[in-house]
Amino acid sequence: MIQIGTYIELLESSSFSRLLNYINQQEQNKYSIDTQERCSSRHESFSETINEEEQLLMSENLEIKQQGSVKWFVYIEYLRAGIGLILGLIVLILLFGIREAIFVFSNWWLAEWSEDESYRYNQFRNCTEIRNKKMNIIRSMNDIEWTYYENRRFYIYCGITLVLLILTLFRSITMKLICLNASRVLHNKMFIRLIHCPISFFDFNPIGRILNRFTKDISIVDEELSHTLYDFLRCFFQVLGVIVLVSWLNPWSFIPATIATIGMLYIRHRFARCSRDLKRLEGITRSPFYSYLTSTIHGLKVIRSYHAERICLLEFFSHLDDNTRTNYLFLTTNRWAAIRFDWITLFFVGIVTLLAIIVRVIGRQFSAADIALTLAYSLNLMGLLQWTIRKSVETETKMTSVERILEYCSLDQESSVERLSKYRPPINWPSQGRIIFDNVSMSHSKELHSPLALHHISLIIESGEKIGIVGRTGAGKSSFIQTLFRMGTLVDGHIIIDNIDIGTIGLDDVRRRISIIPQDPILFTGTMRSNLDPFGLYSDVEIWNALEQVQLKKLVTDMMFNGLHSLVSESGSNLSVGQKQLVCLARAILKKSKILVIDEATANVDNVTDELIQRAIRDKFKECTVLTVAHRLRTVIDSDRIMVLSNGRLVEFDSPQVLLSNDYSHFSLLVEQTGIGEAEYLRTLANSSESYTRRKQDIYNLDDEPALETTEMDPLVPSLKSL
């Protein structure tokens, strides 16, 4: 032995300090190497030596990316969510079609008015022959007739403009309402489907992937898709209007227009496929970014305690770089397509200008107004067509968000959500709390060959029994509780509570009638009253009584100034873990259920709170069936019977005294592994519990005998109150 002393005294020693520095340096090097390997492995291909089980697990955990163009089903469902399919098509075609027809007519009316003005005041000497009857009529009008004619043109044009303004405003408002309603309906549908998903869905899908759908994808549908879709429809109907007008005035303009359209459609084909897939990749690479950020916030204390900030930053930047790369490529492809669209537009403008000059100088078959209107619309056609094609690609790209939302709108649902219950149980069910497991096998997945979490469990739990459930990690304790709440897939067997098979009644009826105190207490943002009584079924007197029974009344009255209406922060962050467990216990006391499940509720609390919870359970749930899952054997050693699980199988189920009488039983091995002193103490508790049970049974037997006529009390017979 070189040195001995306290930690502070040893820090002053050079040898001990060098040893700590060496250990710290070795750990940092190890963490750096592991982080670099993890970051580099994310950009490398997987090894060919991965076995089939690992590949299956990875395939189930990976996010699905759709292939090819966005299906018509996505557009149909989006329109159906907004206003309905048939009504939506009629409204959109009428609004955009009529508005564009009036706009083209207003421009034609203005061109005719301008031509009439030229007929009235201009002198035609060299350009055209005066053979136009309309020109002769206009030139023959006197001033009064011409003034009346001008005013009529003006008033009609003002009326057309007013109607155009009203239709444009009505079209914008209608389109916005349709898109917002579609977003609201899809969001609510996705949320409802999500909260009724099987628990296995949340095991394979990280929280960031779910948040991605409800944040970025919903934001795109709310804010961006409505503008993009509106611009696309507006430009599309403008292109149709220009094509109709130009084909009526000067069909020769369609020769270069056809060539330019073919070129633009070819570029769109190349551009849309890449842009669409990049947008899907951008959505997929965003999910790990959200997941890692959420996990980092939840584990911030652990990260700081291990000085792992740099490691987490490297991993975070790795996810961020993946998302930034796809965004950069997405913007680059947009610029690539825009440049090529501009080249085609320049070619078209040059050809149309040349044709207009030839028609005017050589043909002499159109008026100046017709040529100007044709040239203006022809030049505008390519700009509109280019913008329409770009908006069509952008619309398809943003529709990938609707595609991802619709994936969650078709999630698998729990069985009772998909079908009606055969019948509802009585109002007072369960009235006794007798539970029967008849050859029950359970799996966490609906797949055909998925592994079983519970294997052929058969047992009977009598009403009022206190059952302790023990076993090693992964033995199936939580799976047993989940089966009782129908959270897993029941492969075989039946679960009967008070002569009713829980598989034949509604899921809400099963979960509402059984109380649970979970290992991680769940509190919601709101008031203390809403957390204790979320459905408003109990009075304030009953709630205060429940708080007093778990010794929380003083906390609510003294520390929380608004009493039952005091605010509870997100996840109950303004309360300690023990206080949150007591709130859950008060919630169970309010429900007054005949069956109480305690899923390792005291695993994260101190011994004082543990004793308080156990005492409250003994006092308030005397006549209830209590199932307690615990790692601390002290918690369940005084139970009526102990259930020992191993690898999803029921290996032992008897009273703790009987199990401890066999030195080779699984429960005896678990007790011995706690240490010599703790094992001896547990055996003492088990024996005292057996003695207490026998004494209480003797008293019950005496109560059943006929009462003696004498009023004297035998001092050797203990009273029930003394127990």
Automatic annotation (TrEMBL):
InterPro entries the UniProt entry points to: AAA+_ATPase (IPR003593), ABC1_TM_dom (IPR011527), ABC1_TM_sf (IPR036640), ABC_transporter-like_ATP-bd (IPR003439), ABC_transporter-like_CS (IPR017871), ABC_transporter_C-like (IPR050173), P-loop_NTPase (IPR027417)
Molecular-function GO terms, alphabetical: ABC-type transporter activity; ATP binding; ATP hydrolysis activity
CDD domains in the record: ABCC_MRP_domain2
Keywords assigned by UniProt, alphabetized: ATP-binding, Membrane, Nucleotide-binding, Transmembrane, Transmembrane helix, Transport
Gene Ontology CC annotations of this record: membrane
Domain ABC transporter: 435-672
Subcellular location: Membrane
Occurrences of domain ABC transmembrane type-1 (ranges): 90-397
TM annotation in the entry: 78-98, 154-170, 229-248, 343-362
Membrane topology, as annotated: Multi-pass membrane protein
Domain of life, source organism: Eukaryota
Pfam name, any one: ABC_membrane
Family: Belongs to the ABC transporter superfamily. ABCC family. Conjugate transporter (TC 3.A.1.208) subfamily.
Name of the protein: Uncharacterized protein
Organism: Rotaria sordida
